């Protein structure tokens, strides 16, 4: 039986040079499992978590970054946007507020889009 989301993965030709330092040091996700070619980020390695992996079929920057986005939950989108901008992170625009959610979309070092998501009422 499928139970739901375990991980959302981002693949690269080399995670150690750019992606791991970005997600660990800039974004601030804790590392649960760290191997040279596969990293699990989050407080619970069995999920939900973000994984970074080295893949032989992935070369260079993402050429279609809007196709697949990882969403990171926060209770303060505005504060996180300011914190990350101060570290040089590029955002696609200002945070957007919808009926029950506020979303801000940023680019990681390989051009993947990542969304910061704040649900109304902390849901």
Q: How many E-type strands?
A: 8
Order of helices and strands: EHEEEEHEEE
CATH class of the largest domain: Alpha Beta
> What coarse outline follows from CA principal-axis ratios?
globular
Helix/strand layout:
Elements: E1 7-12, H1 19-27, E2 31-34, E3 38-41, E4 49-54, E5 70-73, H2 77-85, E6 96-97, E7 101-107, E8 113-119
Parallel strand pairs: 1-4, 5-8
Antiparallel strand pairs: 2-3, 3-4, 6-7, 7-8
Structural features, described:
- It is globular and about 40 Å long.
- With 123 residues, it is α/β, with parallel strands linked by helices.
- 15% of the residues lie in helices and 33% in strands.
- The strands form two sheets. It has a four-stranded mixed β-sheet, with helices on one face.
- The two termini are 26 Å apart.
- β6 and β7 form a beta hairpin.
- It has two domains: 60 residues, 2,3-Dihydroxybiphenyl 1,2-Dioxygenase, domain 1 (Roll), CATH 3.10.180; 59 residues, Signal recognition particle alu RNA binding heterodimer, srp9/1, CATH 3.30.720.110.
- The protein is built from two helices and eight strands; from the N terminus they run βαββββαβββ.
How would you summarize what this structure contains?
With 123 residues, the protein is of the alpha/beta class. The protein has two domains: 1-60, 2,3-Dihydroxybiphenyl 1,2-Dioxygenase, domain 1; 65-123, Signal recognition particle alu RNA binding heterodimer, srp9/1 (2-Layer Sandwich). The protein is 15% helix and 33% strand.
